[in-house]
Amino acid sequence: MSNHWSVHCVDCNDDHGNPRNHAEDGMVALIAHREVWELVGERAPDVSELSYDGRVLSGYRVIPFWFLKHRGHVLAPQSEYGYLLDDCTKQFTCGECNTVHTCRRKKDHTGGHSRIRGYTPGPRL
Ligand SMILES: [Zn+2]
Ligand SMILES: [Zn+2]
Ligand SMILES: [Zn+2]
């Protein structure tokens, strides 16, 4: 099954684009080097794309301006199916609408699954 990944800004709900198949590790590497891309975006605004060759990703086109725009924001690899790399992603049947959802809470969370990211269950009454 194909699964394309890209870098996603959680704060702005904005995608870097240039998705790559099974490249979640590559996206982690791109995020790890975000300060480099930000610096290029800042110092060399005429550079629209950089070609990145790394250990887990090669021939990848980085858009420095995108990283500069999202400086200080929460970035995470996102799959084409709309979940983040550290999401739980378990399928569960919802008690409210009785359909199957994909859990968007963080991996290894406690308590029940939820399709809402950042959900924390309230006190049990
Ligand atoms: Zn952002
Ligand atoms: Zn539901
Ligand atoms: Zn879950």
Explained architecture:
The chain has 125 residues and is an alpha+beta fold. It has 2 domains: 4-79, no CATH class; 86-120, no CATH class. Helix content is 20%, strand content 22%. The protein contains 3 helices and 8 strands. The protein has helices at 24-32, 34-43, 64-69; strands spanning 4-9, 14-15, 20-21, 50-52, 60-62, 75-79, 91-93, 100-102. The strands form 3 sheets. Strands 1, 2, 3 and 6 form a 4-stranded antiparallel beta sheet that branches. The protein has a two-stranded antiparallel ribbon with strand order 4-5. The longest helix has 10 residues, at 34-43. The radius of gyration is 17 Å and the shape is elongated. The termini are far apart. The mean pLDDT is 92. It binds zinc ion (3 copies). One zinc ion is lined by residues 94, 96-97, 99, 101.
Beta content = 15-25%
Poorly predicted regions: none
Tell me about the biggest sheet?
A: 4 strands, antiparallel
Total of DSSP H or I helical runs spanning 4+ residues: 3
Q: Ions, cofactors, ligands: which are bound?
A: zinc ion
Q: Please state the structural category.
A: alpha+beta
What overall form do the CA principal axes indicate?
elongated
How do the strands and helices of this protein lay out in sequence?
Layout: E1 4-9, E2 14-15, E3 20-21, H1 24-32, H2 34-43, E4 50-52, E5 60-62, H3 64-69, E6 75-79, E7 91-93, E8 100-102
Antiparallel strand pairs: 1-2, 1-3, 1-6, 4-5, 7-8
The structure holds zinc ion (ZN) (3 copies).
Residues 9, 11-12, 14, 70, 73 line the site of one zinc ion.
